[in-house]
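## retry 2 of 3
previous attempt timed out at serialization; input unchanged, resubmitting
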Amino acid sequence: MPTTPPPTVAKSAAPPPRSVLRDPAFLRLWAGTTASGLATWALPFVLGLAVLHRDLGAAGLGLVLAARTAGFLAAVAVGGVLADRHSRRAVVLWSALAAAVAAPLLAAGLGRSLVLMTAAAALAGAGQGACRPAFQALTAETVAPGHRQQANAAMTMAVRGSTLAGPALTALLAAFLDVSTLLLGIGLLWLVAALVPGKGTAGATAADPAAEPAPRAGFRAEFLEGIREARRHPWFLAGLAALVAVIALGYSATSVALPLITRDRYGTEWVLAAAMTAYTVGALGGALVIARWRPRSQGWAAFAGLAAYGVAPLSLMLPVHPVVVVAAYAVAGIGIELFNVPWFTATQREVAPEKLARVSSLDFLVSYGLAPVGLAVIAPAIDAFGTTPVLAVCAAACFLVPAAAALVPTARHFTR
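## retry succeeded, writing output
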């Protein structure tokens, strides 16, 4: 006797992975971001090898690196607007491809045409600058909100790991490959950044096919709209002010003073190398901690981490044992990631999704744009007033400005 088959039960959607590291979409994005970070770091190092091989002069190196910085600053704001106007994945693709094209042009100009190298470096910087806010917004599209802090920690661990292992790897490759080949390898890394990431879906919303496309404002108007969005978040403006103090004063002062103090006070180069290594190792440890730690007052904890950078210039002021300097740099590295990861995560959570890339571009403009300004000011200040007074002012700024930023309304939790 035939029986009625039991009704089929619709399969429920698969639960999200317990760890973002098990998400294939994120792993593709992580691989692309890591490749772009490694390529960004490697270019100055490889160009430094060109100087050692006498394929490029010291003045030429400065000109090429300045052109890259100029290209970055010119493109980062443009990239933020484009990434909010169009597909973030498309902006990553075309900007990374532009940086990939710049690599063989650099190789072609090496030892032959400084003009070609300068133009290629500007193109590489533009590609790097345009893709940074797009990558930041694509992370919010790819990763569910509950996993973004872990995702941002994984991103920063990849960057810090590249910084730590990169010099040894590049030096090893330089024993077998010439500078031109290494430059082509940088182009391959940019190809990975362009082609490997997938299209974000977690934060995307389906468009109504019947709806009429809204007219777009002009480029300038959309950039100003991003600034207005940033102003809606007092904690974000406070964070930018704290970053200005730490980057333009603290980071710049230690970058200039550490080599001088290593030479004059300790008489050995190992203090410089150990301090910079400790900073990177500390940053890796900080990212590992913040991947799982959820402080109740995340904004206050983040600003405390940022203020911890002040121990680095403070240690250089005093005639302490070199181990104290190395330990201070490790603390500074831990603190900087205790700030960075919650900062990125809060920006992805709190900023309107359609304006995220533009607001992120303001962050990168401050982070990258003010470092050269600080370096240009700190060196003459040390010559005029001495190392210790300049370090004292910079250390005080690192402690006091983040503390003041923590008092701004909404800064305690990085939320409206």
